[in-house]
Amino acid sequence: MSNALLFKNYTAAMAIPAYRICKFSALDTVTLGTAATDSLIGVNADVAPAIGERCDLVRQGIAFIEAGAAIAQGAPVTSDATGRAVTAAPGAGVNNRLIGFADEAASAAGDVIRVLVELGVMQG
User: Fold this and answer.
1) How many whole angstroms separate alpha carbon 68 and alpha carbon 83?
2) Labelling 1: which of 52, 60, 65, 104 has CA 20 to 30 A away?
3) Phi/psi at 25 (nearest 5 deg)?
4) Model confidence over 78-101: pLDDT tens digits?
5) What does the mean pLDDT of the chain come to?
6) What value does the mean pLDDT take over residues 49-75?
7) Which residues is 31 bridged to in the sheet?
8) Do 43 and 23 touch, CB atoms closer than 8 A?
């Protein structure tokens, strides 16, 4: 079960699937996180808004996130090109923005796992 401590409501700048990582696109507007270097801010909850609709992001707590690949429990997590969770593995001298840490393992892309939302930066 998820245990979201803080939800914040925003306008979707695009259609955002449920359980995807998001970033700001404009004032009070969000879009999918599309890179490990994006300023990630939260995770879309279980409703998939269309463009211009409102959406709730989990900004703190434990959220469900769709995995983009296998992830080990406890691994630092960032965004892939489609807003899915992947293990953060920055190259030397490169920063990855973290959405949090995997609370359970994902065996493959498409698995929906719990992630402790804890924003941060990891340098390789």
Assistant:
1) 8
2) 52
3) -120, -20
4) 999 999 999 999 999 999 999 999
5) 96
6) 97
7) 23
8) no
* Length of the chain in terms of residues written: 124
CA neighbor of 68 nearest in space, from 93, 32, 39, 95: 32
How many other C-beta atoms lie within 10 A of the C-beta of residue 52? Answer: 11
**If you search the block for the tokens 């990582």, which residue do you land on?**
21
Instruction: Write the pLDDT tens digit of every residue in 11-56.
Output: 999 999 999 999 999 999 999 999 999 999 999 999 999 999 999 9
pTM over 0.90: yes
C-beta of residue 20 within 8 angstroms of C-beta of residue 86: no
Paired tokens of 112: 């929906």
- pLDDT higher than threshold 90 for residue 2: no
> Sign of torsion, CA 98 101 102 107?
positive
The Cα–Cα gap between 73 and 115 comes to 9
Instruction: Report CA dihedral (111, 58, 42, 22) to the nearest 10 degrees.
Output: 70
Which residue in 57, 56, 70 sits closest to 102, CA to CA? 70
